[in-house]
Design goal:
Elements: H1 2-28, E1 38-42, H2 49-61, E2 69-73, H3 80-87, E3 95-100, H4 101-110, E4 122-130, E5 132-137, H5 145-152, E6 158-161, H6 167-179, E7 185-188, H7 192-200, E8 206-210, H8 211-217, E9 221-226, E10 252-258, H9 264-279, H10 281-289, E11 292-294, H11 302-320
Parallel strand pairs: 1-2, 1-3, 6-7, 6-8
Antiparallel strand pairs: 3-10, 4-10, 4-11, 5-8, 5-9
Length: 325
Amino acid sequence: MSKLHSLLKLCRHILLATACIGATAAFAQPTWTPTRPVRLVVPYPAGGGTDIAARLVAGGVGNALGQPIVIENKAGANGVIAADYVYASNPDATTLLFGSGDVISISPHTYPKIQFKPSGFVPVAPIAKIGVVLAGRADIDAKNLPELIARAKVREYSYAHWGAGSNGRIGIEIFQTQSGVKPMLGVPYVGTAPALVGLLSGQVDLMLIPTPLVIASRSKLTVYGVASQERYPGLPDVPTLAELGFPVDANIWFGVLAPPGTPKEAVDAIQVQMSKVVNDPAAQARMKDLGLAPDLSNPKSFGDFVNSENQRWGAVIKAAGIKIE
């Protein structure tokens, strides 16, 4: 009987240990699943740098959440329309914003009427960073940056941008101030892809172009330099404007944001799946081929980064005296 008693006691211990392990694993794994497809709202038209990055993430996550992620392009007012829309959405984590630096970090300092507060969004996951390249149409009369600056001091060039408060416009404003060229004529478009079409068709002379679009259209462009602190993947031979004497940093960050009040368990579940995509070697290689730099920072610090970028751009815009009419 003593042997039987000992055996039963051992079995009870094994069962208890197994139950504890199972409970711990269940606790560690996100248990939230969406009740319908998740809409990832992109604040620009299809085909631009933001849209490309968002579709890469959505495709990588697939149905891992139990529901597909569907891209919804909602362009207008340099992304403010989309940001306001998501900010006011039901906080059930089925409507998310594929936020970018120019929408969240710049627009609050340039647009007088916005409904969202950058710090009010719930940060979900950092995705990538993207550079912008100062480039001209292929037949422009300045084949390098010194030539461009020399000519721009005596004549007026035009440039395309995707919104009065976009980094595509603000970056050009900063470059003008640093280089001492004549004020350029800014021509607004509804997104980066339409703006690039305007440049390639000869409607305008110059543009700050997101790196993925430069890689796709480089043979049709005159490339001057990257408006970033460092050279970008996919364009390693293109110098930064800082290397050429003009430290313009107009980098764009991409990340997923949720409406205020979104439950933590939902945020955690989405964050896990999106972090898997960003940390996947194949996805990273694809990002680099597209001219994106995967953001491998701690997702928990994403909110702090968003706030610091908001402060950085606020200081830049104030120092440059940039105002939106």
